[in-house]
Amino acid sequence: MKDHEKDKNLTKKDREINSLKLELEEVKSLTEINEKLLLTSIKEQERLLNELSKRSEMILKRGLEIRELKAFNEIIAVASKHLSIKDILKYSLKAIIRSLESLEEAVGREVKISGGIFLIDEATEELVHFTSSGISPEALGCRGRVALGQCICGLVAQSGEVDIIPYCRAETHHGGMLPACKEEDHAHVSIPLKSGDKVLGLIYLYFVPPGYLHLASDVSIFSSIGNYLGLRIEKARLYEKVQELATHDGLTGLYNYREFHNRLEHEFLRAKRYTKTLSLLMTDIDHFKRFNDTYGHMAGDEALRTIGRLIKNLVRSVDIPARYGGEEFVVILPDTPLKQAELVAERLRSSVACHPFFVEGKTVSLTISIGIASFPEDADTKDGLIKAADRALYCAKNGGRNRVYRFMRGKNPCNRVTIPGAD
């Protein structure tokens, strides 16, 4: 009986032990599950953190790209406002520098940017400095001229590809380097200005301090800027040619008849408004028909070109020479009193008379006659001034040619101008 009870007690104890073992197994299992859950949680957190980091980078990159596109649109807006190449490039360069400095500031980098623009001179195959901001041509190692293929800018002009150098002083892969452009090290960005496949020039930019870190999209944006400005240059040149044809004489390059009247109208109103003097010279080549008949129209055209060039070179930059028609030329002399106009006219007459014209292997002489009229002495209107100068020219032709006459109101409408010491 006692043995039986002993066996029962043992069985009960075993059951308790077994129960404890089961509980321990459950605890162990729960611990393992917790450990697995903890590990899973850490990995999930890492995954989420990595995803968040990638998303942040994408947002930052996207933000920069949006800013770059905005900057590009601002540059286009600036360039499209202007018609002349000078204004297009001058204001576009400033807009580019301003936009890039803002982009650098947006990512926490304080950078000072300077730069300029070269245009290609096709005759000499050189880059010629056109405009700059923050740096003068004299400060450049090239002194404002770079042969194609020489130094960084010359090589970029040859390749037609955007070039970004984070540290210019450490640059080794460009041959033919010219003396340093800046004393301190700097990043160097070169952007070719292209119209199709043709390189017209380039933009160079200096970033101080060096170490400019660019996105892949930067190259695309820079290329787009260069291509757009290249097209604007081509359009501006075409516009200038059209304007040239509309306002200039095709043979001599001087203003034509129509533009002469526009300019005279402007100068006459200005002289009247501000109580200024204004003089007009009217010139005719003596015996030009005989010259044409003797030597031919090609020789006649060359003579017209030469006389037009002599007139242009002998007057001031503010004076306005024009071809009036046939063998007649006119010169508008703003802010010029009669006595000074007489000196100018005599200088023109003498220069043409002394100039050798080479025709068919021999030297031929040509002369001109000049009539002068001035405002306010000789006329009260623009047309009146033209008539007065034309009347004085008529007197010069009738008076023997190769001479200068001035208009005079009254019974004696003209008077010959004589300058002491003149031929």
Automatic annotation (TrEMBL):
One of its GO terms (biological process) is negative regulation of bacterial-type flagellum-dependent cell motility. One of its GO terms (cellular component) is plasma membrane. The keyword Kinase does not apply. InterPro entries: Diguanylate_Cyclase (IPR050469), GAF (IPR003018), GAF-like_dom_sf (IPR029016), GGDEF_dom (IPR000160), Nucleotide_cyclase (IPR029787), Rev_trsase/Diguanyl_cyclase (IPR043128). Residues 10-62 form a coiled coil. SMART domains: GAF, GGDEF. GO terms for molecular function: diguanylate cyclase activity. Keywords: Coiled coil. Pfam families: GAF_2, GGDEF. Residues 276-409 form the GGDEF domain. The keyword ATP-binding does not apply. This is Diguanylate cyclase/phosphodiesterase (GGDEF & EAL domains) with PAS/PAC sensor(S). It comes from hydrothermal vent metagenome. The lineage of its organism: unclassified sequences, metagenomes, ecological metagenomes.
